[in-house]
Amino acid sequence: MQTFFKSTFLHYVLLIVGSVLAAAALEELLIPSQIMDGGMVGIAMIVSAKTPIPLGLLTILLNLPAVWIGARKLERSFFIRSLVGMGVFSAALVLFGHISYNITEDKLLATVFGGLLLGVGVGLVLLGGGCLDGTEALAILLSRRFNFSVGQFVLGFNVLIYLTAGLLFGLDRALYSMLTYIIVSRVEDYVNTGMQQGKAVMIITNHGEEIAEDIYRTLGRTVTLIEGSGLISGEKIVLYCVITRIELSTMRKIIEKDDYSAFMSVSDVSEIVGKHIKSRSALLNKETDGA
């Protein structure tokens, strides 16, 4: 129970911090340069620029129905956390709207650093289990009914927003906005995966069991052993293991031992499903029990 409350508390901290960072990126860097975000927030930015309606209010009005519709098919906790995130986001937009630091008038600087800050904010909100924009929630539902992916829907929706921004504020603003979208997407992905991004390691060796035991003893990771055959080298053992990015250097040290003479290839893993990676804590518990 204590672990549950700690986890829940951490999720809400991520939601709040991410929402504040995202609002700061918009109000202090992107909006002063008329650079648009995507999704429902982008629509809110365009409407707010042409009307006296506050951006914070528009964000809630446009996103709440979309998130509500999407939450009917998704988890209830997603809806609650998204409400918290959007509430903090809207309040922070109002706050930062009254605080102007005039950070930069350079459009490129505003695009790059606004995109970086916004990407970190959105990434933290996603890590917290919520969202700031209802576009993806709608995309998930529509992708189940029609023959297109979530990414295709979001991209098409954002292209329409940027075209509209180009017509209203100039083509250069549309181009800056698209660049911002690219930066936000990359940073958001990195924040979500971070140093825990999966790396698939494939090792070809004559010492499969020894290396597998070494990996398990050092990293606490289980390894799948597959029998293989080289065209010239003959019978081999192929080991497959998924590790995190920060464990890669340790894995290299294991493989580079002279006794093993192993060949290793490394590739990125876009998604990990299941519990095939044994945690370090599980290894320590096993050793403690054995003692």
Q: How do the helices and strands line up, and which of them pair or pack?
A:
Elements: H1 2-30, H2 39-50, H3 55-71, H4 76-97, H5 107-127, H6 135-145, H7 150-169, H8 171-193, E1 198-205, H9 208-219, E2 224-230, E3 234-244, H10 248-255, E4 263-268, H11 280-290
Helix pairs in contact: 1-4, 1-5, 2-3, 2-7, 3-4, 3-6, 5-8, 6-7, 7-8, 9-10
H/I helix tally? 11
Please state how the strands of the largest beta sheet are arranged side by side: 2-3-1-4
Label the overall shape.
Answer: elongated
H and E order? HHHHHHHHEHEEHEH
Tell me about the largest β-sheet: 4 strands, antiparallel
Count of individual domains: 2
Distance between the termini: 28 Å
Radius of gyration: 24 Å
How many runs of DSSP E, i.e. beta strands? 4
Structural class based on helices, strands and sheet pairing: alpha+beta
Strand content: 5-15%
Residue windows where pLDDT falls under 50 for at least 5 positions: 279-291
Question: How would you state the average pLDDT, rounded?
Answer: 81
- Multimeric organization: single chain
Helix content: 55-70%
